[in-house]
Amino acid sequence: MSSYADRLAALRQQLKADRLDGFVVPLTDEHMSEYVGSYAQRLEWLTGFKGSAGSAVVLPEEAAIFIDGRYTVQVRQQVSATEWSFQSVPETSVAKWLQENAPNGARIGYDPWLHTAEWVKQATKSLAARGAELVAVGRNPIDKVWADKPDPSKARLVVQPEELAGKPSAAKRHDMADWLASEGADVAVLAALDSIAWTFNVRGADVDHTPVALAFALVHKDGTADLFVDGDKVGEDVRAHLGNGVRLHERSAFEDELTALGGKLVAVDPERSVAAIAQALEQGGARILARRDPAVLPKATKNPAEIAGHKAAQARDGAAVSRFLKWVEEEAPGGGVDEMIAAEKLLSLRHEHGDLKDLSFDTISAFGPNGALPHYKGTAESNLPFTPGTLYLVDSGGQYRDGTTDITRTVPIGQPTAEMIDRNTRVLQGHIAIATAIFPKGTRGSQLDSFARRPLWEAGCDYAHGTGHGVGAFLAVHEGPQRISPVGSSQSGGDEPLQPGMILSNEPGYYKDGEYGIRIENLVLVVERPVAGGDKETLGFETLTFVPIDRRLIDVAMLSDRELEWLNNYHAEVLAKIGPQLAGEDKSWLERQCAPLVR
């Protein structure tokens, strides 16, 4: 179809043929994934929106797209205001909007493989207040009109070796079996792709930037498991690795297997499992125990092998990013560099410094006003050339067999303004506040979030995203349940107590609409930090990312003695860890960037 307007019209025609008065379009897949394969990019196909979070509703005469504060500007650049109204979350929601806008008596369709059971419950209640009903569809109507829809990936699974995984798959499954016994349950459903990859010590290439395979799994109270994955994706090496304790089935057999669990007590994660799973279990007569996926917390609390691998990956990645920043400093002011050229250069340097498997997300290579979009995704149309007088923000990461990286740096192109230096220094102060925080065991990320914001608040500023997200071990770059975010924010992801072994980002920022953006991001590891004379068990953070922070954007006079000491110690560590990997002018540049700052 030649335009997004044509696609919207075709969907409305299909809804009419299906006797539906509307349809809900989320940006997810059958596993409630944040990043999805091309076959599941229904929201982008329908609207043109390229962000990583959002949803839409189509009615006969109205259509609305729902986004949070990260995408307020981006959605207006990418989606037609003629065809769509823009709705801000959490100020409203799909369910609330339907209650106010669905026609009386309407039949609103939804795909039960793309929504949680709780969402179905709330939407049903909202529509009932309107005299309307929510209707599960057998086949997604977008799929009926998306003529050139891609097929799911056929990439093969690969084994994640035990020296990197740190624990055999059989031992992980037996831990889950012990958990099931403690709950009196018979079987646990694993639907989240990273949970399955972690549990079985396998990885895949079915989703861009996330090394997972499309699969479902059932783990039983005897420690055996059923893994549902397309058979042509499993080689003999993977079969041997999985062993006799894992029964292999086609992915398409999963629903029938759920209905065969009648009479059993089945643990299902209500946040990470779609409504269709609960519906199939109930249809077969199983009893559902709502519990968090048993892989989530052990996956988040990294073991020594995973931590060691992550540190090794970070060191290689840091060398590549440091060389890139030198290249930007030298090449950008002279012209001939734009956002896309810079992103390609960074990718090539990552390939030089390690066995890069993929990026961990689409590189945010954002110059000037594009930097004011926290989750900017560049296109040929939005691509800006670098010109002196503003800032370049680059947020990027790599997927390596031993770790997942994520780093943001902000670079002045030409002479920065006094305001830019002030705002960047405040972002740095917030970053240091998180990096140096010491807190009692049991502290939640929401309790730390304001540490990072205070320097900005004191200047009447803030940022509309969380301060930190969890990060996987050669898995998802955004991993729960750990977060550093305000309670109730759209990125809060719950409010989990922080535990040793968890890896998070530390990324405060500042964004001036239409002009520039600033963000400083390192990854940090939660570690024990005993306080002499204290009477509480205390934790803190160990910084894992080592790349210089641009000196030209720091007002040393604004820093406290403690902040300046942290910065100089950090740069000394950067030089010690990254310097040996560099030579010649690259090493000389790094030495200059890491020299102590003085008042």
TrEMBL record:
InterPro entries: Creatin/AminoP/Spt16_N, Creatinase/aminopeptidase-like, Creatinase_N, Pept_M24, Pept_M24B, Peptidase_M24_C, X-Pro_aminopeptidase_P
One Pfam family, short name: Peptidase_M24
Residue ranges of every copy of the Peptidase M24 domain listed in the record: 310-528
Family: Belongs to the peptidase M24B family.
Cited Gene3D superfamilies: Creatinase/methionine aminopeptidase superfamily, Creatinase/prolidase N-terminal domain
Keywords recorded for this protein, A-Z: Aminopeptidase, Hydrolase, Metal-binding, Protease
Cellular component terms (Gene Ontology): cytoplasm
Ranges for domain Peptidase M24 C-terminal: 538-597
Domain Creatinase N-terminal span(s) in chain numbering: 7-137
GO molecular function: metal ion binding; metalloaminopeptidase activity
Protein name: Aminopeptidase P family protein
